[in-house]
Design a protein that fits this description.
Six copies of one chain form a homohexamer.
Chain A: E1 5-8, H1 17-27, E2 31-35, H2 43-48, H3 50-62, E3 69-71, H4 73-80, H5 85-88, H6 93-96, H7 101-122, E4 126-129, H8 147-171, E5 174-177, H9 188-197, E6 204-208, H10 220-226, E7 231-236, E8 238-241, E9 263-266, H11 275-285, E10 291-293, H12 302-316, H13 325-330
Helix pairs in contact in A: 4-7, 7-8, 10-11
């Protein structure tokens, strides 16, 4: 379908955008999905300085790169989460402030709204990100966990995100939650519950990323079919099961990259994601946004990987059929 | 083995042959397997006008394309079938006539004979096609269906096709039935029964096409091994199961391309056919005919698909080994 | 749940009911699902003679057997089917008449209505059966088959069965279509299409029989979940795949019992049906009707089989849980 | 091997022990594994009143029941856990106190020590239970979670449990952690890490329960082989995957018993646990303790289930072979 | 089919026959398949003393036990094998003699003939056993092994066994080779090669034992279908794969019973043999001989095992169907 | 990781090295692993003529080819094997001599030592090869085979190879046994046993070749993990299972290339070896030696195959990751 193939910059934030843009351009990418961290896309600067977004656009254009979505995973995570020290490492000081959990959550919510404003200025209509969740930590229902506890988590999500989504609507920007463990939605059933909780707010949809569904044994195509009008953005990321009777699907508190884990992220095309049926499903629902490679593989050189992932996507992004075969065969009739 | 890789033109009959030949040549095909519909290969014209076949050859040669087989699937289907309105759409008016079923069947039989005659003039030794079947519609044995009913179907097939095959023998042409649901032979056991019925007529063999075996769970290599001297032609076509607990292998009266079906045709290389063992089997039996891509995929742009299918076949069509490894190792002895 | 375990008498119609009732009672069955053929339940006699149904009840009660459903598969098949010689063998002469297809279909429709009337007299609220289908024979879409052809088949079904269902409603009887190849509904998608066609008529539902779903790779539990308010009756029947690379799932025009088929019916408990999840699903939807063993296995002595099937069902028909485990654990709190 | 088959009373704590003992005895159990909640085994009473344990023994003996292990899952859970409202429901008021988390943890630790004391008085050498975990909630490593965080959790475990285990050693009692999500050890790698953390304390081992390994895809036999000298007790409990492409192995915040979950507990023998290899492994390591049925199945009547589970275990608890087959064959030599 | 269920005594030769007969009778066996070692059936005594076979029969009859086959596996093994010290342990001194390999082979051949003579006297028509093989040790073709070497092995087999089989024919006894690794035939292709080598001698057939096919991944039913007229006897023995990524299907020179092996024998019903299709296949070919349990499981008490194996066989040995279901359904026609 | 990709010359020994070197260079190989047979690397000449190794190096360098390992599989095989005629074909006359088995074994041992000496002169630090085994032929434990017999085989191995390994140590050369059926080590457990037997001699390790593990169902990655410090060299060779219910994993005494075998070698990338996890494992253990393609496929033209295998390896030999993703994400913190 010749969709844009972009590179999500989140895993490259150690590189200045200028460096990364040059590389991505060389590798053949059509564009970048800028992370709102590192110097890639700084929301505060975008809002305070009119020249900031222009300069970013100029930089990208100088390398022939488009940008149609930006991403606020790290700050978004803090909106609903119980806050601990780990969050400090992922947000700007202005969001962390004194670290009081409720304060962090509220400042994070405001930052997510600001991000929509900055996106609008930058000419981008999709912001991807995480939501966090106040109930993720109660994942396994022991001690016995009443549904009322879980309901409270979804209410908390709706309370915090409805005003954010209202702001997004005003800015003409849509928010794509990356469905992912630790978020309010991590599979089909919780995505439905989240949509129900937020009243199917038109600004709220999903950044489809199959890599998070694979280790849950959820069929990515079933997700697309279920939420066909809510696929706002697509990540190309892959994961692989490595179950051998000793490893656990819960991965044993082991780091990504540890071979004793029950699953891991791998370079797109090397995992258990079947891309062909996903492309067909995206074609069916008429998705025309970018295919954005979120490259993460703890066992492979990332430059090698970005290159082969791009090649993989180019080989998969075919257009749907425009010819009915019956018609062709029917030409037997003169 | 550097077999010819040809494109079966049946799914491209909406294009004039001239247009298609130019495209196929550009894509790198070695030749075409012309369908006897559209303007690709018109039997009546080939018989009435001596210049017709010469002109076709000239056209093909102008594009550097060979043609070693033609195909009469649509008319062939009418020879044994109970005839209904659907058949009207697939045959020329001269075969349909007044639409009286027995009349259609007899005219179709004559057309299939004429096709051999035209093939001979055109310098082609293989005609592929369908046979139809008077008993396919009794596939599931309810109401209880005695074997006598089925035997009658095979007798009907033999009665109608033996004279056709005799004519083929006279023309030095062989007929390759594409083993396929709706035909007198659709798997290994029915192919054997058909051969038995027709007395293993030397003109009657098969156009091997693994895509029709996949949704029946028949191993394509087992078919080749079983009928190693009857593989007259090979179609490269692929199919994929898409069983998810809700879809049926019988496909629910749903159109090809509907994702709720239990299986579908897909571009060669993207389905469940394992091509490597098929190439090995073809090498073992000494098959030297073309590998003819019958491209059909309701979910992919056909030009993209034809190109990638050709590339796939080129990567698979290896020659057999000429060296015995024991011999090599044995050189240890001086 | 201590549901009634009954024996469907269709496969035992060579035995007089008196003989069969004695056997079934000895084996430990709770009741019989009488077939409307043989001398088991004769609709014409039930309607013309008031004493007929009383005598049947007396006979059953003498053996301690209940009857809560009767079955009209054979006549029902003729309502929508294209009629051929095979149908003659499965209907009474009064339905066959002169064998003119439309006449047979109309007389069969009336007989199905009469069956409801007889059921009412007999004190039975469920009649199971087949519907036939005018489009089953177009199962595989070659020659190319437009959806309009299929739609016409569902319209034909609705036209013929709506008045029948209206009559059923008047008699306070429900009709359970056994979802089955050759019928208007044979899987989830066609069952939905049939319900849509007939306007979700409240008298029309299903006789759930998992054995017909297994060789289609349809999950029986998915069927129950999808049509949870339409499960009017349940057949306990089993099937087994016997795919070995040479056999076809379409079964090669071979008789049941032939080991070269790709699947076959087997005694309940010996096939691929997983009964435990089915019992759980039936418990969830609150199904309280009988579990009726339709015993068919071409490779096993039927008396041995009926006995072991009954034992299998007794070992599976457990009641749902009434205790919440959280509550129990919660008693830790004093 | 004719091991004792006992019933763990945790899921039956709504019944007075007297009632349950009568039932278990009727069903044929050899003994009970008493839960330290409900009135089954009350640690405080056992310590304050010398007659308490005698009366319990008398009650059990009156029903011919042994007791060789007691269980303190609920209180044990509070030793390392972050405490929330859910914990209030699972501990006695004297442990909950004012609910201050650290206070709850310390009182829980003391109660676990007291349980060993009570066990000694009661003549029981194994106490099973949970440990809780301060790091379980960081299961998925986002926000990025350094190993230092996890290490701290294991240190916390060691700090809290080493003195408890020292006390156990003094009382001649061993503690069997039920390896389970939400605990410091939930699979093979975390069990090893826990053992390392606690210096392989001789009082610390495992209550082997395969049902918690199944939904993690960990082979129960691998666990036994790995920790062959640390299997202090065995639970017979079963679980079943119900992955269908839409359900998640993380179970979507859905209650046990909800069919949309990716897995669930089921009555022993009905799940994915393969019991035969487990019995062989237990025979190899010389395990001579009880096989204690922890019955939990949200979809089955528990009395039906306890009965069938007992029958299942009786059919599996075979003794190892004492004869070498070579020797027997060797008798060919006279 | 109510076939005799017998116990093969080979694994019980440490027990005097009198002891074993009493046990087997108590367990419910119908008969014994006597091993020609231990005191179970001594060929030399049977030939030298007319009273020997009568006394054996009396002993068996006193326990209500039949005997329709005897077995000479140990001596048979020596007929073709390269002889080493291991063979000394499995044959009588009179066969071993001075241990010169060719002498042992020839004496073993004579003993196998004598066994037929003894069988005839004893009234038994089937002798089961092994053949040995001069080429088994060349199993893996390195150093490179020409087919001429293998052919020589089959010629050696034919040379040694044709005279033996001629003798069997004279005695009216048939020989059932237990197809098994280390024998001249160990799978379908080698069984065919052995039959070809020995000219399809009518006295030479097979003692079908599925346990030896399972670890080779050969379908036991395919074996029965292939050699339907050569199934002279049936062993009920089971095996189970225990492949875990570390174990090898070649079993690493580890003893039976070692859990690190890639497969092992287990009590019938506990392994990977599917008995139902085997019974159906035996019914189809009309096999009416005994089902003889060869019980071998290094991890289970053999008395427990013999009992449960017998129960398993009784639950499987069903008769074929005598009723055509179409006929039953066809009674719809009055 | 940009390891050297070399071609093992063993299967090309029918070609003079000069011819092969030219081809390999053209195809793009980085080097050759020279076989010590044919004219590729002649140990006797290397020892007697100082110019020999220089000339070889010159030849290789002229084609831009490295050589970092040589291989002595054929002679090595004779060190422990029982010797038969097949060995004559694989060793030089000077090793075979009069063919007396013990003499052959001792001369072979000396030749293996000489090979280390020649390797040292040639500037190569790794010699790959086979060991043979005196117990391989006792693979299947019938007649009953005591562990003492197997132990004797490992002792024999240690006795013969310890002095060889001592010599290797002196020459600064390491020996990589290709773990393979017919060798003293053919899987994980026997490799451990061999290492134990030889006292973990530092000169003794493995030439890792996954193709020999695949038909044993051993996970190649498990092998690498188990022997991470003993992987001295790596062969890229592939194998494929072709089990169809009739073929045996033991391969029925059939030649490589026969489609009735249960498995066969195939061109790397076309078999069941999963290369990606192997590359990751090699990266983890820090293996920096060559990836040496041992090309063997009885069904494919070897020149086609060598080319595609090289391309496959180039596409897999990626470097490990140098960036921690947490760090990148952590840049959210300014």
């Amino acid at each position: 379908m010749s969709r844009l193939v972009t590179l999500f910059t989140g895993q490259w934030a150690d590189l200045p955008l200028e460096t990364l843009a040059a590389k991505a351009s060389d590798w053949g990418f059509d564009g970048l999905e800028l992370a709102c961290w590192g110097d890639h896309f700084e929301v505060d600067k975008a809002l305070e300085d009119d020249g900031y977004v222009t300069a970013k656009r100029d930089l990208l254009e100088a390398h022939g790169l488009a940008c149609v979505a930006i991403s606020t995973h790290l700050v978004g995570q803090c909106v609903c989460d119980p806050i601990d020290e780990r969050h400090r490492a992922i947000v700007p000081d202005r969001v962390w402030g004194d670290g009081d959990p409720e304060g962090v959550r509220q400042r994070a919510a405001q930052e997510v709204i600001d991000t929509a404003c900055a996106a609008e200025r930058f000419g981008v209509e999709v912001v991807n990100g995480f939501t966090g969740s106040s109930v993720w930590s109660k994942l396994y229902f022991f001690p016995p966990t009443p549904q009322a506890d879980i309901d409270a988590g979804y209410t908390d999500f709706a309370d915090r995100w409805t005003p954010i989504m209202d702001a997004y609507a005003r800015h003409g920007v849509r928010f794509g939650l990356e469905v992912h463990p630790t978020e309010i939605a991590y599979d089909i059933h919780t995505a439905r519950r989240a949509l129900d909780a937020i009243g199917n707010h038109p600004s709220f949809g999903f950044n489809f990323d199959p890599s998070h569904l694979i280790p849950q044994f959820v069929d990515p195509v079933a997700f697309i079919n279920e939420f066909s009008d809510r696929i706002f953005h697509v990540h190309i990321k892959d994961a692989r099961l490595q179950l051998d009777g000793r490893s656990s699907i819960l991965s044993s508190h082991l780091d990504f990259g540890d071979p004793r884990r029950g699953w891991d992220f791998v370079s797109p095309g090397r995992g258990d994601v079947k891309w062909d049926p996903i492309i067909r499903a995206l074609n069916r629902i008429g998705y025309q946004g970018p295919l954005s490679i979120e490259w993460e593989d703890s066992g492979m050189d990332r430059e090698w990987g970005a290159h082969e992932a791009l090649e993989m996507v180019r080989g998969q992004d075919f257009a749907p059929n425009e010819v009915a075969f019956d018609a062709a065969f029917g030409d037997g009739h003169e």
